[in-house]
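Job type: complex structure
Entries:
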Amino acid sequence: MKPNDLPSTPWVLARRAARMNPSVIREILKVTERPGIISFAGGLPSPSTFPVAEFAAASAQVLGQDGPAALQYAASEGFAPLRERIAAQLPWPVDPAQVLITTGSQQGLDLVAKVLVDPGSRVLVETPTYLGALQAFAPMEPEVVGVANDASGVLVDDLEAKAAGARFLYLLPNFQNPTGRTITEARRAELSQAAARLGVPIVEDNPYGDLWFDQPPPAPLTARNPHGCIYLGSFSKVLAPGLRLGFLVAPPTLYPKLLQAKQAADLHSPSFNQRMAHEVMQGDFLARHVPRIRALYRAQRDAMLAALARELAGLGVEWNSPDGGMFLWARLPRGMNALDLLPQAVERGVAFVPGAAFYAGETPDADALRTLRLSFVTATVPQIDRGVAALAAAIREQQRR
Amino acid sequence: MKPNDLPSTPWVLARRAARMNPSVIREILKVTERPGIISFAGGLPSPSTFPVAEFAAASAQVLGQDGPAALQYAASEGFAPLRERIAAQLPWPVDPAQVLITTGSQQGLDLVAKVLVDPGSRVLVETPTYLGALQAFAPMEPEVVGVANDASGVLVDDLEAKAAGARFLYLLPNFQNPTGRTITEARRAELSQAAARLGVPIVEDNPYGDLWFDQPPPAPLTARNPHGCIYLGSFSKVLAPGLRLGFLVAPPTLYPKLLQAKQAADLHSPSFNQRMAHEVMQGDFLARHVPRIRALYRAQRDAMLAALARELAGLGVEWNSPDGGMFLWARLPRGMNALDLLPQAVERGVAFVPGAAFYAGETPDADALRTLRLSFVTATVPQIDRGVAALAAAIREQQRR
């Protein structure tokens, strides 16, 4: 019982551990968590949208009616009624047997990487792309290759140039994290055909699709070629992230391996949470609830667009106007660098994420270094006004240097 | 939108996917789930021990007081008060900063394998060992090597013979799944010294340690050499498995990589569940609750031992008498095979898991083929009596053939 008498143990890390790194965003968020900072940095849904009372009622109902079952081990595939509901509400024919409940859609990315990625095998991503996906893929040691895009989405020419040997193309087609960009109907049709022709499977990640502001986004890529796609969904943005519930829909040929990977990873997602989510969504709850989230986030986006137009006029900054989701993408004038701007912005009381964090692979180019991601959903409208004014002041100061 | 016009997509699986296989136990459980079968096969805690009312109160409390925070994204490390509580109750000095909340202890095994196992690297396990650990390690493609043991635990001589290059030794020291065996104090002391001398880290998995019947098991291996061990714990057996909450305790040098693997795997374990578990465990709840589980399981073990002595007398079957946990280990007479016995047992209305499922690596030898795992916690005492009688009848029939 004297540990100091024992020789120290030589832990040997797996090679893949070298690919695991702290999230840049996480590190930024730590800095910006200090009180008084207005944060456009986080990707947190507005807690005012969480249906707390409905969850309380659902929890009481589930524990009262099925307590022992809700608290017991359960099937790795997930709670059958929840899988049926998911299959029924997707806009293409889905057999509930193709639906796998995951511990957040982040786990779906982990399972996909485990089943499809060998060390050195190619994975194609958008430029830029979701940082969490890069982190989920990294331990399986892929060669991550960014495909170029324009405002309509991934460029088919560049996809063709990079397709050889790709295990899959990872897409976030709706109100993308980080850019807010949505792939157009025409580009989806082209991409779907091209991917099938090139033999490149698509992994379609759709956490934000329900958060449209004026009209729903075009049909999913998966709906156009279900046997060539894995589709990932989430309850984090329409219900609440703290339940950690997502799902994937896989072709029948792939489902068994994803299920086995799931079973090995955590046996099953919490049965209590699955039953509670199912209970909350009974009837037309989402049809009433989600429009409220859309209206709130649209008002917040409008507030940010108005503040940007007002405060950044003449500074040479560009930004887009997303049709839904949580994020807006801005570009500083030539010669500026968002990483350098951040500390000055934080000093003035506002935070954002430099866009360079979202570029796969190599050192981001000068263009990427000018980008920043602004979340418009966590801050209130008055905070948005003050935060954008502070951002403008920081940019002006930077330009004077 | 005409999927049939598209060429079919050539999905390429990662090499590691060949190591993912359906759980043998899962397949057996499917067969035995038909109504009327008395199952000694499953590893399910008795649902009568789940504190349903306490969870209902805790859920109302958490949602009422901290609803938005409980439903929001949260730190990958876990809920700080829960980590503090875990650190405080472990029987050696643990800094809460070393505690990582996992989505069941199964996820702890997944993270450990990701961070420590390269393809072909050696992992040492007990003979037999927990099947779920073999499944969690398999995707990282280890060379799994079973170390021999006697009734006191792993044999130090055999550990020495097999230690070269081992990334870790995986142990389930208390009331092991599947054998019910507990490693003795003397053997723990020997093993701890030997592992440190040989430079072999230990991964200590302790889901059953609190379920002792007469006296607590000896101190954990980790307590004897915290820098040379990763410790895995679980709330599945003392609270409920349906929350999917476990934890690991890692040396400060390893913690960051395990944390990064955790973040990539599912961002964090459900914040709501962590707060609910913490709320339920306030005050002296476990000190009142766990003794009730112990008393119940001890009575069930005694019932099974009595039934075995009564029904199997003279049949040449041997079994052990576990000091805690959920499982008992039996051995059929020479020449018999538990796999062959199972269908006949099921026909007579009773199920078990053939022990061969728990042996790592190569084809199990004749000795392993005679073993079976009997869970005494899921069936009621009258069911245990009927089930053991049915088992005896099946063995007799098999012996007549």
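Summary: Chain B is about 40% helix and 15% strand. Chain B touches chain A through 99 residues (CB under 8 Å).
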